[in-house]
TrEMBL record:
It comes from Lacticaseibacillus brantae DSM 23927. It catalyses: GMP + ATP = GDP + ADP. One of its GO terms (molecular function) is GMP kinase activity. This is Guanylate kinase. HAMAP family: Guanylate_kinase. ATP binds at G12, P13, S14, G15, V16, G17, K18, G19.
Length: 207
């Protein structure tokens, strides 16, 4: 059996740059980690692809997935459901590969309960004015939605104390560096590697 992969949870307010940072990490090829595609009931944005950006589902479909125990976590965020399908995460961790979840705070707290040995990283904006600017520049939300997202952001930033690490996304390359360093160090934590060394010691007399 391979050593089980590490669950990495990246949260942070809408517009802080989670998707941008994740894509930069994937492009960086620094480790074999898999992104878990979430399920949502929100409308598809232009350019988004079902099964790649999200699994886009109706409210009824999403609720039946919840009822069938198919979600690791889920939350309502600004009038829509978002959640992590359980099966992919379990299978990939069992294969010994790291899994990255990019999810909002309420869902992250559910994961914390279920998977306490995950690594919880909160991505923060330099400040709220910059956050609003990023949401406006992105151009995917109308003014009312942006206001709701900024209001939610203040509540989310207040939840930072429940995370292991806070990473400021001032510049994408710097944020990526910081997160990669965290992941590298977390892989060296003794509880994660101890079984490998115990196995080695079992065969010590054959050296
Ligand atoms: N709990 C939970 N939140 C999610 C999931 N997928 C995405 N989110 C979060 O839902 C919020 C809204 O996502 P979205 O509408 O795509 O906006 P965007 O992240 O600003 O592009 C963001 O904070 C996402 O990180 C999920 O599977 N579970
Ligand atoms: N470090 C950064 N500096 C400036 N703009 C950024 C930075 N990171 C992301 N952005 C921009 O901010 C907007 C929101 O980023 P996005 O990755 O969609 O955020 P999230 O996934 O957290 O909602 C996008 O237009 C993106 O290009």
């Amino acid at each position: 059996m391979p050593e089980r992969g590490m669950l990495i949870v990246l949260s942070g307010p809408s517009g802080v740059g989670k998707g941008t940072v994740r894509q930069a990490m994937l492009a960086d090829d620094f480790r074999d980690f898999q992104y878990s595609v979430s399920m949502t009931t929100r409308q598809m944005r232009p350019g988004e692809v079902d099964g790649q950006d999200y699994y886009f589902r109706t409210k009824t479909e999403f609720e039946s997935e919840i009822a069938n125990g198919g979600m690791l976590e889920y939350a309502k965020y600004v009038d829509n459901y978002y959640g992590t399908p359980l099966k992919y995460v379990n299978q990939t961790l069992d294969e010994g590969r790291d899994v990255l979840l990019e999810i909002e705070v309420k869902g992250a707290m559910q994961v914390r309960e279920k998977c306490p040995d995950g690594v919880f990283i909160f991505l923060t904006p330099p400040d709220l004015a910059e956050l609003k600017q990023r949401l406006t520049n992105r151009g995917t939300d109308d003014a009312a939605t942006i206001d709701k997202r900024i209001k939610t952001a203040s509540e989310e930033i207040a939840m930072m104390e429940n995370y292991d690490y806070a990473v400021v996304n001032d510049k994408v390359s710097l944020a990526v560096d910081r997160i990669e360093k965290i992941i590298e160090s977390e892989h060296l934590r003794v509880p994660r590697v101890i079984d490998r060394y115990k196995g080695m010691l079992k065969h010590a007399d054959q050296v």
